[in-house]
Every structure is written in structure tokens, then in C-alpha cells.
């Protein structure tokens, strides 16, 4: 006897976890409560490529989290999620989740570069930041 497939509901978008200047954590643990427990589900996460105006896959698997890495600082990214059942039935993609990576943290290299390039405003901004005193104590390439 062939089991009839019950359509999989369109999932909610992934929830954003920890965000840094190079990573975004996506979580869809909330779906565990909504999906039948007698089946194993695969999840596909796609990221929008704004230049090509298309979606690219960043994850396909059975886990409930994905940390997307090697991202650009202070840049906006969009993601969507699809659920695939045991008989390859697919949900529609979730609504889009959009998140922005953080600014790159200030460091000694940024300070030294600003000094070498004679960018007074950048030097002042770095020194006035919360990390300013710590950044100054970092040696340049000459020690």
C-alpha cells in the first residue's frame, strides 16, 4: 500500500541567531514542534544573490541550524527555507528573512593604516571608540 503524502505547510522563516561581521547563524528549531514526529525532514536554506537576482543554496541537511560564513562586513543578506519530506514532497519556500552583518571591529591594523594614509578623521574615530585604548596597544608590523 502506498502512503499518501500530506502536503507540507509553508514554514516560517529561519530565526536569526548570533551575527558577526563575517557570519550569520540561522535557526529553524521552531519547526520541530510543527512537523510530524514519525518522519525525518530535510531542510534547504537558500541565500539571495542580489547581483545575479537568483537564489543559491547554502545548506541542505537534517539539522536545525546553519552558520553561514565568509560574509562581507556590514552587508545585508536574505535567506529562505524549504522543508523536504521522506517521499521528496516539498514545502513552498518560507517568507524571506533579511539580516545585516555587523561592522568590522576596529583593530590595530586599521589604526596604523589610517595613520599611514594621513586620515585624521579615521584616527580620531578609532581612538574615540570603546576599543580605542586597546587598539593603540597593538604593535604594527615593525613591532
From TrEMBL:
<feature type="domain" description="Fibronectin type-III">
    <location>
        <begin position="10"/>
        <end position="105"/>
    </location>
</feature>
<dbReference type="InterPro" id="IPR013783">
    <property type="entry name" value="Ig-like_fold"/>
</dbReference>
<dbReference type="InterPro" id="IPR003961">
    <property type="entry name" value="FN3_dom"/>
</dbReference>
<dbReference type="GO" id="GO:0005634">
    <property type="term" value="C:nucleus"/>
</dbReference>
<dbReference type="GO" id="GO:0042981">
    <property type="term" value="P:regulation of apoptotic process"/>
</dbReference>
<protein>
    <submittedName>
        <fullName>Fibronectin type 3 and ankyrin repeat domains 1</fullName>
    </submittedName>
</protein>
<dbReference type="InterPro" id="IPR036116">
    <property type="entry name" value="FN3_sf"/>
</dbReference>
